[in-house]
Amino acid sequence: MPKVVFHADFEVDYQAQRGTPLCRSLDVEVAHEIDFTIAASPSPEWQHVHIEHIGELSALVVCVDKPVYVRLNNQASAEFTIGPTDATPYGVLALVDCAIDAGPGLNVNVKPVNGNEAVALFGFAGGTAAAEADGEDGYGDGGFGEDGYGA
Amino acid sequence: MPTLRANIRLEVDGKVAAGFPVAISQSVVAVQQFVAPKEATDDDRSLPIESITRVKALVARLGSQGLTVRLNGLASGGVPLNGLGALVILGSDLNAGAAANARVLNEGDETATAIGFAAGLH
Lengths: 151, 122
What we know:
heterodimer, A: mainly beta, four-stranded antiparallel beta sheet, 49% strand, B: mainly beta, seven-stranded antiparallel beta sheet, three-stranded antiparallel beta sheet, globular
């Protein structure tokens, strides 16, 4: 089983914050690299983050270089944004030891805030292997593990 | 203006993941730390970050009991975090109001506790 180790420390004006640093190690059935770009489009649409091999999501760490709306676990409203800040090029969303089980294509969806700019995403996701689909919905064929991380 | 700095490292099978580590620096106006126990009841409750009306960063880790987190005014559903789980959002804009930006629901049998901080605007 792939082992995912997440470590993060946080300071505000050089003072460590309560509950940190975070350090968590997690064994997952399938780990999947996130590395893709959403093309610029005048009418951006919701799309999933290319983690179709994962059924129940137990770990997600994703960085974006432009602002995006985020919906998690098949939520239909109340999305929130992440994006770059004044001094850094990335917004970050990390969920470690979660149990997002809406299924492939519904677990994590994003939409660019500004459709005129392409958005790059990178990171990792891990969880249980999705049930093998019949291929008609775009998630099947080929099984899992082609990326070198799967079972 | 306070500056939040974060360093995030991610490894998969002992190898540093592509693009990591990531270093973040973010100016914020206010920071509120919290230790938030939530008993096992049917209702959700706001994390005690009432001084932050627009959340630009939110970090929380759980004790041994899990919680469901609802962000930015989400009224149902949410993100289930298992015991010892963690949530990190940097570069966010949660703007549903201090009472609705981050709420937690405990559907377990025992009190669960979230520990962390939020940073953003008053």
